[in-house]
Amino acid sequence: MGGLKDALKDAPQVLIKVNFISTKTYDTGATTDPLVVEALIRKAREFTDKVFVVESDASMTNADKACKATGMLQVCEDNKVRFINLRHEKERVTLEVPEHEALHSITVPKIVTESAIVDAAKLKTHSETGVTLGLKNMFGLLPDKVKFKYHMRNISKVVVDINSVLRPRVTVIDGFYALEGPGPVHGDPVQMDLIIAGRDVVAVDATACRVMGIDPMEIYHIRRASEKGLGEISEDKIEVLGSSVGEVMRRFRRS
To answer: Which string of DSSP letters, residue by residue, matches 205-231?
Structure first.
């Protein structure tokens, strides 16, 4: 899996969507490693000068504070890249969701729809959705502070709806330090020294599940995304380059 050059070669601007579910640092397994993002910034700069790192506030977390606490702000400043808290973006657009699962439409900052999205996710288990990888990381593109209302609508179905209308150009899952246990904040860090990346977010997530010893067919949002034609879930149809899944697989403890 791969192809960052082909994914970004015609991109007018790039949004690197990180995971700031808390102010915990990358080595806890909860948030995206700044070094991974720095590498993505430098690669994206080969194709466009307009590169941004983005996240939105969560119900319990201020993204601006998390950016500073995790060391991501320093990386942004060192590389002269702006961090955008999507909650504060005023210009927004509404996207209709065809054959929706939970939401007829979603409203997101206009910059999201005008950019190539690099999905810089984390390798983690999740108490509600089973795992939180590339597909689930896209949930953070919703600019609302209070996201509990989406959980009430069935968060797994909401994740499918978001990915039906917003597709990352490339997904990079940071597994240098992963997280097992209840997740997505609480649990134990697992040092995997691993990156899983590709252009098909469903295939990337399915492969990441197998690395964690989890059948992706058990994860509703991954299975349903595949059924809706958003990507490939079948192991036989996913080409894995580099280390094989068997070489790096570790059975993760779940909630």
So the answer is: HHHHHHHTT--GGGSHHHHHHHHTTSS
